[in-house]
Design a protein that fits this description.
This protein is of the alpha/beta class. It folds into 2 domains: 7-53; 60-310, 2-enoyl-CoA Hydratase, Chain A, domain 1 (Alpha-Beta Complex). It has 14 helices and 8 strands. It has helices spanning 10-25, 33-51, 56-63, 71-78, 120-125, 133-148, 166-170, 173-186, 201-205, 226-233, 240-247, 251-254, 275-294, 298-310; strands spanning 80-84, 97-104, 107-114, 153-159, 191-200, 212-216, 220-222, 262-264. Strands 1, 2, 3, 4, 5, 6, 7 and 8 form an 8-stranded mixed beta sheet that branches. Helix 9 links the parallel strand 5 and strand 6. Helix 1 (10-25) runs antiparallel to helix 2. The longest helix is centred in the last third of the chain and has 20 residues, at 275-294. The chain is globular.
Length: 314
């Protein structure tokens, strides 16, 4: 079975394998084209059926899909003339956070996001998308730069959490996250947040305070991973599925309690099936909401941000 499919997608994978096998010989047997078209339509219907009734635990699996687009994939497709900036001016550069200046349409913006990396070598370089304190301090530096030049800030969230190692604790991990929360809550420029994959713990929240928070359809956002919750509550990681349900980590649940403002539709079968369409959907969302935020005066924008924060959970 194609390893890009998850376990619950087995029926889709079986049809996809048949389609690929026929495509390999269609040049010699063009009469197979109608059969390929029929199987393609069948694959679409089965995918729609499966994805219309995903459990929260299955959504967690989609959010973690190894081929799911990352921040770098979205930056290259959404922003023009992106110029990456490095370093926190205190310790070093953290590659698990990408940040820089680019153009969203005609508007210059500052873009910041988690980056997990794709192959093994890059994953190690990016620390699997788990930032150290210098990563969050780099993000804060770029936010203040955006404020200085009146540039909107756009953040992409995709991390299992901040790095939990002793090095991060020695360099002030909790302080760096808390400082970002304080900075974003009062930053005098519009902030747009998009949760694209995993939104895990304080590592995600450190980039998550904004004027408008959107979330991809099959992304997750929670105070801890379902496995961590299961280990704490049930003293075993075997109840991760139950934990995911109880924590309500999906976009459809989070919008009900005002944690997020909007859900962005994904391509059929998840963002990893069509990078370009997923990026187009995010770009349209960002352009629309940035236009709305730019219509507010600064004092009104900050008041609105405060009101959004205190309504979370109601």
């Amino acid at each position: 079975m194609n390893n890009s499919f998850l376990d619950f997608e087995r029926p889709i994978a079986e049809i996809n394998d048949k389609i690929q096998a026929l495509k390999d010989i269609v040049d010699e047997s063009p009469e197979l084209l109608p059969q390929i078209a029929k199987l393609t339509e069948e694959e679409k219907k089965i995918t729609q059926k499966i994805y219309s009734r995903l459990s929260i635990w299955q959504i967690v699996q989609v959010a973690r899909h190894p081929r799911r687009p990352h921040t770098a994939d979205y930056i290259s497709r959404i922003f023009s003339d992106f110029d990456e900036l490095h370093g926190d001016r205190m310790f070093g550069d953290d590659s698990s956070i990408i940040g820089g200046i680019g153009n969203l349409g005609d508007d210059p913006v500052v873009v910041i996001g988690h980056e997990k990396g794709r192959d093994t070598e890059e994953k190690v370089k990016r620390n699997f998308g788990m930032p150290q304190p210098e990563g969050y301090r780099k993000a804060k530096r770029l936010m203040k730069l955006a404020e200085q030049f009146s540039l909107p800030v756009i953040t992409f969230i995709d991390t299992s959490g901040a790095y939990p190692g002793i090095e991060g604790e020695e360099r002030g991990q909790s302080e760096a996250i808390a400082s970002n929360l304080a900075t974003m809550s009062e930053l005098q420029t519009p902030i747009l947040v998009v949760v694209t994959g995993e939104g895990g713990s304080g590592g995600a929240l450190a980039l998550g305070i904004g004027d408008h928070v959107s979330m991809l359809e099959y992304a997750t956002y929670s105070v801890a991973s379902p496995e961590a919750c299961s280990s704490i509550v049930w003293r075993s990681a075997d109840f991760s599925s139950e934990a995911a349900d109880a924590m309500k980590v999906s976009a459809k649940e989070l919008i009900k309690i005002n944690v997020i403002n909007e859900i962005i539709n994904e391509p059929l079968g998840g963002a990893h099936r069509d990078y370009n369409l997923a990026a187009d959907n995010i770009k349209a969302n960002l352009i629309t909401n940035l236009k709305k935020l730019n219509s507010y005066k600064l004092d009104s924008l900050l008041d609105r941000r405060y009101e959004r924060l205190i309504k979370i959970g109601k």
